[in-house]
Design goal:
It is a single chain. By secondary structure, the protein is an alpha/beta fold. Helices cover 36% and strands 21% of the residues. Helix 4 links the parallel strand 1 and strand 2. The N and C termini lie far apart (51 Å).
Length: 214
């Protein structure tokens, strides 16, 4: 492991207030190594610098950790495993499903989960609007997936009653919030602070409508 990368990650975790043990830190660094390796042949992420990946991928993903609810979590449009893989490392007792319709990306997700020994991850290659799992989810997360109204329309059916939808955004999504259905459940927007990232980060937390309400 690169001591410099490990130091950057550990400092970032401390600033975020996310407590991980040494084995979890090493898993996150191993994940970054895999991402760097696969990125040379597959376009998984536009960020190529591994140290930049620490802040813009791993720490950014873990910034929403306090907002997760329940034990069964779905990452919609997971792509390179963000935010799902860092969150799965941080929460080994939770069950994570990484969903993406791109076969190339889900091959990476499967390989990463196997190589990292993350038994709490399942990978599904499917479009979210047609995905029908046997059990619904406590929390559904997405990062740079689509507009809020589309995320709600496509993923709401996968959320348990009383569960929540979490959408990671950059700038405060005022126009997207206005476009949500007027009868939608509780909506809250939280400002996030991510170490080494000066740009705005926000998290929108939504409670879905109950069955029969729409």
């Amino acid at each position: 492991m690169d001591p410099r990368r490990e130091n950057i990650l550990e400092k970032g975790l401390l600033l975020l207030g996310v407590e991980l043990d040494q084995s979890q830190v090493k898993l996150l660094l191993a994940y970054l190594q895999l991402l760097e390796k696969w990125n040379q042949h597959y376009n998984l992420t536009a960020i190529k610098n591994p140290e930049e990946m620490i802040s813009k991928h791993v720490l950014d993903s873990l910034s929403i950790e306090p907002y997760l609810e329940g034990r069964r979590i779905l990452d919609v449009g997971s792509g390179a495993g963000l935010p799902g893989i860092p969150l799965a490392v941080a929460h080994p007792g939770c069950e994570f499903v990484l969903l993406d319709s791109n076969a190339k990306k889900t091959r990476f997700l499967f390989q990463a989960s196997v190589e990292l020994g993350l038994s709490n991850i399942s990978v599904v290659c499917e479009r979210v609007e047609v995905y029908r799992p046997s059990h619904l989810f406590d929390t559904i997360v997405t990062r740079a997936f689509t507009k809020l109204v589309d995320f709600v329309n496509q993923a709401e059916h996968l959320c348990k009653s009383g569960g929540c939808l979490l959408a990671m955004k950059g700038k405060f999504p005022q126009d997207e919030l206005k476009a949500l259905p007027v009868d939608f459940g509780i909506v809250k927007a939280h400002s996030l602070s991510v170490p080494e990232i000066n740009a705005q980060r926000h998290l929108v937390k939504l409670r879905p409508r109950r069955a029969g309400d729409h």
